[in-house]
Write a structure and sequence with these properties.
23% strand; 13 strands; five-stranded mixed β-sheet
């Protein structure tokens, strides 16, 4: 009995010792560490990708991470993560925030907190130009489509296309190649990446087309650990200040504007994701 009491006392002491660390918020962690660690993909142009000249990771979401780091007056450290590792890396505390093509879904919102919307993505379907019978996403009912493994595009395909079979790949290039090789009938991906792939394939033996209308509209936010209200409020203030000052517009135009391949105008505002 005495041994059990001693063991229980030791266990309670360990819990008490760990309690302050468990209660510490992300802002305190960043301050103690002296740097801000942002998880991003590094393979998703123009959101985060390797500049072919400098070899540095750059992009729209990298600039968003930098804005948060600047607000905290600490250096930015980027950690490259795969799509399926985004939430596990965050929950495990290996990154402070994820800015990695993170579309809002009810399932993810149960696991993590989202910042305000910092991007809104139309999800579209690419198909081979030669498949004349495919004119809209509805025509893919009962067929096979590709998507990036663990992405909201994969989940959206299953939700919005009846009886669809999804074939997933680690990266967008593999999913796109599956379309060109005829292994699937369509490829579900964000409009921006769809435009890029369509342009790349224009002079290839297998040109592709965009099926209209869009499959669904997906708000994107940056992910934070559940319940860390102080950090979430800080990130949201950074985003709203960027919107008010025009910095958000300048960053958007830098990566998506009229001087880029995409030639798009920002038509969304930074705002709370309501689901």
């Amino acid at each position: 009995m005495k041994k059990q009491i001693l063991a229980l006392t030791a266990a309670l002491g360990m819990v008490a010792a760990l309690a302050p660390a468990a209660q510490a918020g992300t802002l305190e962690d960043i301050k103690a560490r002296g740097k801000f660690i942002c998880g991003t993909m590094g393979t998703a142009e123009p959101f985060s990708f390797q500049d072919p000249k400098t070899r540095a990771i750059v992009g729209y979401e990298v600039d968003m991470c930098q804005a948060v780091a600047d607000s905290l007056k600490v250096p930015l450290e980027l950690k490259l993560i795969a799509v399926e590792a985004r939430i596990p890396e965050l929950v495990a505390g290996r990154v402070d925030l994820i800015a990695a093509n993170l579309g809002w879904t009810p399932e993810r919102a149960q696991q993590i907190d989202y910042s305000f919307q910092h991007f809104a993505s139309l999800q579209k379907v690419l198909a081979r130009e030669s498949d004349k019978d495919l004119k809209s996403p509805a025509d893919l009912a009962g067929k096979r489509v590709s998507a990036v493994r663990g992405s909201s595009s994969e989940a959206g395909a299953r939700k919005h296309i009846p009886n669809v079979e999804t074939v997933t790949f680690k990266d967008p290039s593999g999913a796109f190649l599956a379309v060109q090789q005829g292994k699937v009938s369509g490829f579900v991906i964000s409009e921006l990446n769809a435009v890029k792939f369509k342009a790349q394939a224009a002079n290839s033996p297998v040109p592709v087309k965009l099926l209209e209308p869009a499959l669904f509209l997906e708000p994107w936010g940056m992910g934070m650990r559940k319940g860390d209200t102080e950090f979430r409020n800080h990130v949201n203030k950074v985003l709203t200040d960027m919107d008010a000052s025009g910095q958000a517009d300048r960053i958007y135009d830098k990566w998506f504007g009229m001087d880029t391949l995409y030639k798009m105008k920002r038509e969304f505002k930074i705002a709370e994701i309501t689901g």
